[in-house]
Amino acid sequence: MHNLAFRGLRLPRLGAMRGGGGAVPFSIADLFASSEQGAWYGPSDLSTLFQDSAGTTPVTTAGQPVGLMLDKSGNDNHAVQATAAARPTYQTGPARATLDKVDDRLSVTVPVGGFTGTMVLGTDQGTASYGVTIPAGAYDIGGRGGQYFPGNAIVGQLIRDGALSAGDAAATEAYFVENGATAGYGSVTDFGRFWRDWSEITSFPLIDTSSGTSFDYAWFGCNSLTSFPLIDTSAGANFRLAWYSCTSLTSFPLIDTSSGTDFERAWYSCTSLTSFPLIDTSSGTNFYRAWYNCSSLASFPLIDTSSGTNFVQTWRDCDSLTSFPANAFDNIKGGDFTDAFTNTALTQTSIDNILVSLVASGIAAGTRVFDQSGGSAPSSTGEAAIDTLRSRGWTVTVTGGY
Amino acid sequence: MRITIPCPAAWRPDANHFAMALGSGPADALTYGSLNWLDTAGNLYACASLIVSYTFVSKAQSTLSHPAWDVDNIIDMDAARRAQAALVFSLTPVTAMPDKLTACAGDDALATLAAMGLTQVEVYV
User: Fold this and answer.
1) What CA–CA distance (Å, rounded) separates B4 from A149?
2) pTM of the shown model
3) What CA–CA distance (Å, rounded) separates A208 from A125?
4) Do A86 and B31 touch (CB under 8 A)?
5) How many CA atoms, within 13 angstroms, populate the side-chain half-sphere of residue A333?
6) Chain A partners of B49 at a C-beta cutoff of 8 Å?
């Protein structure tokens, strides 16, 4: 049987100094030296890996399943998988537990009280530290539901109840990198679904995403994030559902979205956003439901919609949205605004702004639909714009029924 | 060798008995879980992917015997045999079938599922 007694194990790393350069050699075990709760998994330590969940058959060579990964923190929060088909696979070069992203995952039972602190995750594609709040009960190690994980393999993972200092987090990351984890995410082009449904993440690190072209579903359902860092998204084209239902975000940074073409549902139901920055959407064609149900937004910036063709339900159910700028749609390429402003709170000036801008666009072919409900009816200025739009084949529905 | 097996919704109970008959314990009844995958016709599948030996592949296609671990007789061997009869094994990806357990070899499970014509079910509005 396996030896569960890991508490007190010291693994001094001469290359990683605690606090980022102090005189004391860094030891991950020290992070748990005062009986801190948490877990630490390291597939490079073969003595902690077993093929079966009972811990009777050790992992000895590459290609074998991992049914039990012992917790090296001393807390006995071992990660298990009793279902044979859902076990990760041990591989070498570097030593890691690989995940098929179909069903592979291990489960740890988080003790009463849960973990509120830091998670450091070293993978084959990048290493990063997150603020986390993990409730008591079963928690997936290796991907939410076996499907969503920022990489394809676990090289090292640490979760500690009680936040790590920046120095300790950096030293832990360095330790995992020494063991074969990739340091940064700078080579990743497809971040699709990486952190999907990771509702335990309370803070997200400033990682290198400069090569990322696809961010679809990347932070979908990360509903505990209250802020988001200014990551480099300058190469990003696909932002579909990227921050969908990040319901606790109160602000959003001025990220570079200048290459973004698809913003479908990107900020759908970010219900706590009270402001939105003037991001570069000049390449954006699809804004379908992009800000649907951003119910705390009172105003919206003058974004560049000049490539836009699909505005279906884009601001629908933004029921606090009162202020919308003039000239927002002067240069659009398509006229599908079906339910675009349904259930909003636009002022008369704002709805006039929108209607006048649609006239300025000159759209007189293709789909030509505009819907508004809630808020104020247009003034005579807006009504004149509606007349012009209808003469160009538009179907226009506005508050007040004009 | 890695094999990836989409299990049609209707076959899940039988397929999980089959998994137990080939496996090592009652937890293998959870082999086919959530119906997270969809074919072009709208049929739902639960998928499993695992690394197996050629011995395992041979065993999966041979006469099934009741495993020694199942002293409580929780395995329905008739169900397991029904699932086995629906098993199709291929060394290359073939289109998933709603009336078959199609096991396809391939190193990348997600690529195999894509080649079988399956996409992830997306639950959003």
Assistant:
1) 19
2) 0.92
3) 11
4) yes
5) 13
6) 85, 100, 102-104
Q: Is B51's CB within 8 Å of A65's CB?
A: yes
Q: What is the pLDDT of residues A196-210, one digit of tens each?
A: 999 999 999 999 999
Token pair 């009162």 in the structure block, residue: A322
Q: How confident is the model at residue A143 (pLDDT cuts 50, 70, 90)?
A: confident
CB atoms within 10 A of CB A390: 12
pLDDT by residue (tens digit) across A44-94? Answer: 999 999 999 999 999 999 999 999 999 999 999 999 999 999 999 999 999
Q: Is A100 on the interface with B (CB under 8 A)?
A: yes
Q: Give the DSSP H/E element, type plus range, for residue A36.
A: none
Tokens coding A25: 């050699």
- Whole-number Å distance between alpha carbons of A278 and B55: 60
Q: Nearest CA of chain A to the CA of B85: how many Å? A: 20
Interface check for B1 against chain A (CB to CB < 8 A): the answer is: no
CA distance B12 to B9: 6
Chain A, residues 277-316, CB within 8 A of chain B, namely: none
- Do B124 and A265 make contact, defined as CB atoms within 8 angstroms? yes
DSSP assignments along A112-163, one per residue: TT-EEEEEEEEESS-EEEEEEEE-SEEEEESSBTTTB-SSSEEEEEEEEEBP
